[in-house]
Structure formats: C-alpha cells, structure tokens
TrEMBL record, chains A, B:
This is Maleylacetoacetate isomerase. The lineage of its organism: Bacteria, Pseudomonadati, Pseudomonadota, Betaproteobacteria, Burkholderiales. Pfam families: GST_C_3, GST_N_3. One of its GO terms (cellular component) is cytoplasm. Residues 87-214 form the GST C-terminal domain. Its EC number is 5.2.1.2. The keyword Isomerase applies. Belongs to the GST superfamily. Zeta family. One of its GO terms (biological process) is L-phenylalanine catabolic process. SUPFAM superfamilies: GST C-terminal domain-like, Thioredoxin-like. Coiled coil: none annotated. It comes from Duganella fentianensis. It is an enzyme of class 5 (isomerase).
Length: 214, 214
C-alpha cells in the first residue's frame, strides 16, 4: 500500500493515524504542497489522483482520495481493529464528529484559502490569524458540545478505544496549537488529545516524525 | 422520522434527496437560519443537536447531525435502494466524490463564511462573488476530473443508479447556478445534473418545493 502524503497535511495526518491504529504497513510517497506551485497539481500526481488533492491511497486499483473515504475503505477491507463502532447509531455519531472537523472546520484553514486571503483579498497577518481562530473555535466548540452532552464519550471520543473521530480530532488540535488558539474552553477535547498522544499510533503519525518533515 | 431542515441549506437538501431516493417518509421540521440570529443556535434546537448545525435527523434515539453521517445511517438501517455501491472500491469512490463537495467545496460558500467576509473583512459584493466562484469552480473542476477519468461514471456519478455522490452534486449545482457560475467547463456534471433533475426524488427535494420556501 502506498500513501501519498505531506507531513503537515491535516488530512494525510488523519490517514497516517488510521493506518497505524490498524497496524497496517505502508510506503509513504511525499508530495510537496509548496514546491513547484504545488506538486499535487502537477501531471505526475494528477495521474494518480485527478482531483489534485492530498492524500491518496494506492491499494492496487484506482487510487482513493479523500481522507475519510480512505479510512472507511481501510476499515471495510481490513476489519481487524475497527475504527467505527459496531452499531449504526454509534457509527453515525463517530462520522458526525469526524465531519465536524473534516467538513466544518478544517477546510476554512486550508493553505489555499489562507493564500487567497492574503494574496487576493490583501488581509493582514492579524486578520488571517483572527480568521483561523474564528473557524477553529467554532468547530471545536461544536465538537466539545457533542462530547460533553453524550454519555458515549469515553477515554476517547467514542468509548474507550480510538475511532475515526480521534483520527480527525488530533490533527485539528495540532493546527490549533500551531496557531496559538486557547484550548481551555474545550476540556473534553484537551483530555482526549492527551490520551491519544500517549499512544504510539498517534506519536508515529505526527508531522515531525515524517520522512518529509522540515 | 423527523428531519430538521431549512429549504436552502445545501446539506439538508442532500438528505432530502436521499430520503426520497430510498422512499422513506419523514416529517420536516423547519429551522430558520436567518431568523432570531439563527434558530439553529437557539437553546430549543441546541437541545436536539448540541453542535448547532443543520440538518439533524431524529430517528428515536439521539439526533444525528452531519448530512453524510445521516445518509450513511439511513443506508445502513434501511438497506433497500442502497445509495452506496456493493464493492469497497466503489464505496470509496462514491464517498470521495461526496466529500469533494461536502468538505472541499461547500464549506467555503456557507452563509456564516459569507457573513464574515462582508461583515468583518469588509469585502465588496464583487469580491464575495469572486470568492464563491473561486471555490465552486475549484471543487467542480476536481469533481469533473474524477468523473471524466473513470469508467465507472455512468448515467449518474457512479453507474446507472443515483448514489450519495449525486445527493451531494445536485445541491452544489443549485448553488452554482444561484450565483451564476459558468458550468460549461464541466460537461459530465451538467449531463448528470440533467439526468437527476428528471427524477421525482430530486424534484421533490428542491428548495422551491419545501414547506418553508420563501
């Protein structure tokens, strides 16, 4: 299995965690988001993933894009150490938590969006940081509410084993810390992030541990 | 089953299509995104969905949020007329297409984001429209590439029956048309949108056909 990845890509980080939690070996193929106007947009990578987005998984057939689709695929084809609960209601909750990060939070702080804000709309660095904090805090506040109001929250986001929700939460907390967001309003998130950070699967997926880390 | 919905919400529109395609009856509970500073943020709705986001599905237990999580839940609990293919690779492709809209495209044109652009960053109406076109065209171009380069594309996004991918595509095209985006660079999208628009399931889910339409 080959994973096209970039060390600081939040979406690639999610998939690296998932692969590690499931104990699956893979070859990392670095794609540099900033070199040559973005290697992900060049023909070589477009031949792998026509969408021109990271990450992508090559498992023999057509490459699979989109981190959540990749993780669901891994869970379906390698059912040991599942990342989704056994019951439909639990799976719905875990997917909703994951999407609260992957759809509602992360896309607004993406590199291409920040480049547009500064390059086209000429916002200041201060305004850029306020933008990042606005959407990260909105997303993390929703996530915290979903954790705080549900008895299914455990040592991790859903029960006492890590799921797809934790795979999404940890990279978002990494981003929040990188941009100095105050995490004290989100005690469940902080607690769960600490619990995840103790596990080798999360440690080894960290951006600083990647072969292409700068 | 109760669906908390707003006629023009793209995410609620996806779920309405899915419910109709699966032939499932539901009660629509309108939540007005603009009234009272957003009814979705008020305590009455927060008691249903603590995340304060639309849509949400009430199927007896805890309400389920996030359109894609709701559709997966419906497909798991009501397996007739499936919205995901039978094979893992096909499911991965359909989910990746859906996320290309739901994660990469739609969140950047959301109401709250547009309000921030005009209200906080003081962008002009012209700049707002350029922003919308930028992200809609990027997302639709990726989607078009995924359709054009894959033999699994059929009358609909994946084969000859509608899937989760079509549930996401049609509301995004509605948004694109609402903001006068030129769709001619995306012939597969236009063709599939036309095929979907012929089906009653899509027609009845259209914003203009909702009880809360304005």
């Amino acid at each position: 299995m080959k994973l096209y990845t970039y060390f600081r890509s939040s979406a690639a980080y999610r998939v690296r965690i998932a692969l590690n939690l499931k104990g699956l070996a893979y070859d990392a193929v670095p794609v540099h988001l900033l070199r040559d106007g973005g290697e992900q947009l060049q023909p070589a990578y477009r031949a792998v993933n026509p969408a021109g987005l990271l990450p992508a998984l090559d498992d023999g057939g057509a490459a699979i894009g989109q981190s959540l689709a990749i993780i669901e695929y891994l869970d379906e084809t390698r059912p040991d150490l599942p990342l989704l609960p056994a019951d439909a209601a639990g799976r719905a909750r875990v997917r909703a938590l994951a999407l609260t990060i992957a759809a509602d939070t992360h896309p607004l702080g993406n590199l291409r969006v920040l480049k547009y804000l500064t390059g086209v709309l000429n916002v200041t660095e201060e305004q850029k940081l306020a933008w990042l904090h606005q959407w990260m805090s909105a997303g993390l506040a929703s996530f915290e509410q979903l954790l705080a109001t549900d008895t299914r929250t455990g040592r991790y986001c859903h029960g006492d084993t890590p799921t797809l929700a934790d795979c999404c939460l940890v990279p978002q907390v990494f981003n929040a810390q990188r941009f100095q967001l105050d995490l004290s309003p989100y005690p469940n998130i902080v607690r769960i992030h600490t619990a995840c950070a103790e596990l080798p699967a999360f440690q080894q997926a960290h951006p600083a541990q990647q072969p292409d880390a700068e």
